[in-house]
Amino acid sequence: MTATLEALRDTPPGTARPRSGKRGRAGQGIRTFYLFVGPWIAGFVLLTIFPLAYAFWMSLTNTDGLSPNWSYVGLDNYVRVFQDQQTIASLGRTMVFMLATVPTGVAAGLAMAVLLNRDFRGRALFRALFYLPAVVPGVAAALTFKIIFDKNAGFANAAIGATGGEPISWLADPYVRMVLIFMILWGVGGSMIVSLAALQDVPRELLEAAKVDGAGPVYSFFRITLPLLSPIIFFQVVTGVIGSLQVFVPSLLLAPVNGAAAVTAVPEGNYFFMVHVYAEYFAKSHFGYASALLWVLFLFVLLITGVVFKIGNRAVFYGGVDPSERKD
Amino acid sequence: MTETIARRARVTALYICLIVLAVIFSGPLGWLILTSLKAPNELSVFPIQLLPSTPQWHNYIDAITFIDFLGYARNSLILATLSAVLTTISSAWMAYGFARLSAPGKKFWFGLLISTMMMPGIITLIPTYLMFAKMGLVDTYVPWILWGLSGAAYMIFLFRQFFSGMPKELEEAAILDGCGHVRIFWRIFIPQSWPVLAACMVLTFTAAWGDYIAPSLLLSSDRTTLAVAMTAGYVNEKGFPVQNLLAAGSTLFILPVLLMFLFFQRFFVQGFSTSGLK
């Protein structure tokens, strides 16, 4: 970090005119800093801290969001979280979803990046084709997959029909979870682009030196490239884990009913923790209980992120090229 | 001789892999477009028909009139532009503070900024919505203005990385000339950073254009965005989706994002490589 360097050359504006005393200078520096950074701090307090606190307050009450008759119920809602079968089941489903999508997504993205990290004709075209689905908005992706997996007009059943099989109700249990996972993995190009950018930063001299020493491509991939890429892989795992624990919008969009009623129609296989939270808020108006669920999820995400960091600190190799020394 | 054969085989294998992947990845959009060109009676025939017998181009016109497509598209355009412009400018503004100024507490705030990048966003969204509802801000664009003005952590980080790499002589000379930081930011840093500005604009615009959950919570059905309207609008009087028009509408909905992606492709990639993530 350059903070120390910058502290040494702190030159606030208006120093063309000599100022009296160090204190005035520093004071102006502070004011300028907060002039620039202040809006973010204000936004953080108003749009992150405040909603979290509001949810925490609601979690201690039995409010339904509308009626003026509510009372404090202490930690009852939190006790209920652990007695609710739906909570445990939906949390389990969310964990399975995470384990099914994060490792495969990162590995597939890396494999595709390796495939594209060489010179050949049509490279830019393939890169664009693989990355394109990642920029398709989630709503459009869900509508597309609903059309492909439609029981009557979809491509999936067309293919099954061509081989003589019976049509499948893809958008119902137990298949709908598979459709969701296909849909998520369709966007793996996002991970590919990140890995590809990192692969292109692996110093060529290192790989050439290994080749001169007689190392094969597989050996140098696992011994040189992969360790150098481990920070970026770790970054993807962390963001993937956090994202998949919150999975919820794709479940709503793949539900057979649309609009506000969608949440009550989500098939069990896609009824993830956050779907449960949403249903408790907006289908059942259990604002207090739903807020407690939200806080439990928040703490759970923090816990899992902590665990991932603990493991990551051992597995990630940070001794590579310092990004600040890299020549771009 | 054998070497060239082995080489040929390797290149062929590479292309086979790539072509198979290309088919898998472009397949869904291909099917969407094929469906959008089918006549209603071609949608549920058995065995299912791959190609439309005659492309029904008028499906695209029907898709625009079936729902108030242009009205919703205008809402989306306003919202996405508002969000992109505000987020980009404010993120750059705050990044300047983190990159070029110093004050006690800077390390703390920067650490907090980085950790909010890992904040589960959906968790704050529902209570934020309830809060805005209490303040009577539902069905207005005020929430997006507030989100825009307070910047996006990831974008602040991108700009901060970019600004940190700019030569210090730039603003030292300007300060000697009596130029304040606000002017340095507008006159020197902003004009120099157009690749990041473009990347940030494109990324925030497409995110807002495609966002489903915030508008579905915060906007009523006639002020809502195309993304929300798409999911509910294309149903017949019996409540069944009109697949071909839905597909045509979806194609039109994706089109601006795809065009932006094709024109600004390198900014998407640059966005990631300039970030210097550790």
TrEMBL record, chain A:
<feature type="domain" description="ABC transmembrane type-1">
    <location>
        <begin position="91"/>
        <end position="308"/>
    </location>
</feature>
<keyword id="KW-0813">Transport</keyword>
<feature type="transmembrane region" description="Helical">
    <location>
        <begin position="287"/>
        <end position="309"/>
    </location>
</feature>
<feature type="transmembrane region" description="Helical">
    <location>
        <begin position="33"/>
        <end position="57"/>
    </location>
</feature>
<comment type="similarity">
    <text>Belongs to the binding-protein-dependent transport system permease family.</text>
</comment>
<feature type="transmembrane region" description="Helical">
    <location>
        <begin position="228"/>
        <end position="249"/>
    </location>
</feature>
<keyword id="KW-1133">Transmembrane helix</keyword>
<keyword id="KW-0812">Transmembrane</keyword>
<dbReference type="InterPro" id="IPR051393">
    <property type="entry name" value="ABC_transporter_permease"/>
</dbReference>
<keyword id="KW-1003">Cell membrane</keyword>
<dbReference type="InterPro" id="IPR035906">
    <property type="entry name" value="MetI-like_sf"/>
</dbReference>
<feature type="transmembrane region" description="Helical">
    <location>
        <begin position="175"/>
        <end position="199"/>
    </location>
</feature>
<feature type="region of interest" description="Disordered">
    <location>
        <begin position="1"/>
        <end position="25"/>
    </location>
</feature>
<dbReference type="GO" id="GO:0005886">
    <property type="term" value="C:plasma membrane"/>
</dbReference>
<feature type="transmembrane region" description="Helical">
    <location>
        <begin position="95"/>
        <end position="116"/>
    </location>
</feature>
<dbReference type="GO" id="GO:0055085">
    <property type="term" value="P:transmembrane transport"/>
</dbReference>
<dbReference type="Pfam" id="PF00528">
    <property type="entry name" value="BPD_transp_1"/>
</dbReference>
<feature type="transmembrane region" description="Helical">
    <location>
        <begin position="128"/>
        <end position="149"/>
    </location>
</feature>
<protein>
    <submittedName>
        <fullName>Sugar ABC transporter permease</fullName>
    </submittedName>
</protein>
<dbReference type="InterPro" id="IPR000515">
    <property type="entry name" value="MetI-like"/>
</dbReference>
<keyword id="KW-0472">Membrane</keyword>
From TrEMBL, chain B:
<feature type="domain" description="ABC transmembrane type-1">
    <location>
        <begin position="73"/>
        <end position="264"/>
    </location>
</feature>
<feature type="transmembrane region" description="Helical">
    <location>
        <begin position="245"/>
        <end position="264"/>
    </location>
</feature>
<keyword id="KW-0472">Membrane</keyword>
<comment type="similarity">
    <text>Belongs to the binding-protein-dependent transport system permease family.</text>
</comment>
<dbReference type="GO" id="GO:0055085">
    <property type="term" value="P:transmembrane transport"/>
</dbReference>
<feature type="transmembrane region" description="Helical">
    <location>
        <begin position="108"/>
        <end position="132"/>
    </location>
</feature>
<keyword id="KW-0762">Sugar transport</keyword>
<dbReference type="InterPro" id="IPR035906">
    <property type="entry name" value="MetI-like_sf"/>
</dbReference>
<dbReference type="GO" id="GO:0005886">
    <property type="term" value="C:plasma membrane"/>
</dbReference>
<feature type="transmembrane region" description="Helical">
    <location>
        <begin position="12"/>
        <end position="34"/>
    </location>
</feature>
<feature type="transmembrane region" description="Helical">
    <location>
        <begin position="184"/>
        <end position="209"/>
    </location>
</feature>
<keyword id="KW-0812">Transmembrane</keyword>
<keyword id="KW-1003">Cell membrane</keyword>
<feature type="transmembrane region" description="Helical">
    <location>
        <begin position="144"/>
        <end position="163"/>
    </location>
</feature>
<dbReference type="InterPro" id="IPR000515">
    <property type="entry name" value="MetI-like"/>
</dbReference>
<keyword id="KW-1133">Transmembrane helix</keyword>
<keyword id="KW-0813">Transport</keyword>
<feature type="transmembrane region" description="Helical">
    <location>
        <begin position="77"/>
        <end position="96"/>
    </location>
</feature>
<protein>
    <submittedName>
        <fullName>Carbohydrate ABC transporter permease</fullName>
    </submittedName>
</protein>
<dbReference type="Pfam" id="PF00528">
    <property type="entry name" value="BPD_transp_1"/>
</dbReference>
